[in-house]
Amino acid sequence: MDKKIAIRQLIEIGKYGRNMRLAAEGWDSQWQTLTAIILSARTRDEVTIEVCKKLFSRYKALNELAGAKLEEVSQIIRPVNFYRNKSKNIINCSKNLRDSFNGIVPHDIDLLISLPGVGRKTANVFLAEHEHDAIGVDTHVSYISQKLRWVKSNNPYKIEMELRKLFPRKYWNIINPYLVRFGKTYISRKQKSSILESISEIR
User: How many helices (H) and strands (E) does the chain have?
Assistant: First the structure.
């Protein structure tokens, strides 16, 4: 794939869903951003955002969430998928941030993935949201990248590495939000496929 063609295709994809808020966006504190990203896994962003609003109105500081009762957190975040495991993860993540990082979310991928509930995709989405050059590979990024033949692999880590080679660094942190917004704009795979076919013709 030619780099210039890939960039033009990415810019075209970025025209879809511009006003759509994603779960990682718009929070006051970095611990809230990280918590929202953890909760957003396998859950629609609009559901995650509403759940986080309730969660953060109940626990207004990291220390409060770190000391929260599991049953209470589980009840609040019940609408998200895998809420039981996520309840444990966000409480333990908050405790870890409080006890090991002085309440500050680290901006280092190795330190981030050491936190409960934080995998490479979550870490990269967090870093990209805070202006670091990072690419979070989720199902939308995986599907669209393969469909447009930006990548050859279907392994998330390999996809990330291939995208890093294809796109200049200045584009890395917009790849996930652009592709996620596009993916969420068109629920039907048939519709997505049709539009991506036309985008693939961009030269």
Answer: 12, 0
pLDDT in tens, 86-143: 999 999 999 999 999 999 999 999 999 999 999 999 999 999 999 999 999 999 999 9
What is the distance between the alpha carbons of residues 14 and 177, in angstroms, rounded to a whole number? 8
Q: Which domain holds residue 124?
A: 30-129
Tokens (6 digits) for 3 = 């780099």
Contact in structure between 155 and 115 (CB atoms under 8 Å): no
Of 172, 177, 111, 100, the closest CA to residue 138 belongs to 177
Please tell me whether residues 55 and 124 are part of one structural domain.
yes
Q: Is the pTM of this model over 0.90?
A: yes
Catalytic residues: 121
